[in-house]
Amino acid sequence: xxxxxxxxxxxxxxxxxxxxxxxxxxxxxxxxxxxxxxxxxxxxxxxxxxxxxxxxxxxxxxxxxxxxxxxxxxxxxxxxxxxxxxxxxxxxxxxxxxxxxxxxxxxxxxxx
Amino acid sequence: xxxxxxxxxxxxxxxxxxxxxxxxxxxxxxxxxxxxxxxxxxxxxxxxxxxxxxxxxxxxxxxxxxxxxxxxxxxxxxxxxxxxxxxxxxxxxxxxxxxxxxxxxxxxxxxxx
Lengths: 112, 113
Description:
The structure holds two protein chains of two kinds.
Chain A: E1 4-7, E2 10-14, E3 19-25, E4 29-37, E5 44-49, E6 55-58, E7 61-65, E8 71-76, E9 85-93, E10 101-102, E11 106-111
Parallel strand pairs in A: 2-11
Antiparallel strand pairs in A: 1-3, 3-8, 4-5, 4-9, 6-7, 7-8, 9-10, 9-11
Chain B: E1 4-7, E2 10-13, E3 19-25, E4 31-38, E5 42-51, E6 54-57, E7 65-66, E8 76-78, E9 87-94, E10 103-104, E11 108-112
Parallel strand pairs in B: 2-11
Antiparallel strand pairs in B: 1-3, 3-8, 4-5, 4-9, 5-6, 7-8, 9-10, 9-11
């Protein structure tokens, strides 16, 4: 099946630093999504991107839908301890409405 | 409170003993979906349903069954569980027009011995 390559796998940063993670695919995706999962809970949607080139912000989070429709990135500015968790990219492949593909996640650790 | 509920939250069972994990949502969502999460593999979609009586396979449907007889419920059935189905399972739902913005349940941790 289709896959999303998410990197990095893990990050260990100092509070206040900016964070960047990205996702790539070998095929075109119609939608890119970024989720965060806290320990013991289900993923929660952070940002949804629907158009190639779209740049969307949600507080300290900014995400972009790549022009080629095969990639996306998520930036977190001025990280804080509560940013700790696993971040997943996800997307709907072209031609699919209900099928949602997830990346393997980026585990973020923040040192106060 | 708008939510997706799953039961049970934890289950330990033995190989071959049929089980059902229930999923229910109170948001009148058309779309529902099941995922499994395994270390290092992220979430993988098992089955999804665009509406009542409409179900489709996701990426890893083998060994699972689903049904969608009512809008609010989407049970996941393991007819003959095997150890490789030991995993953390999530149910999710959304409005059909916003399939992307899925609300996830709290998860069901299943162990098959």
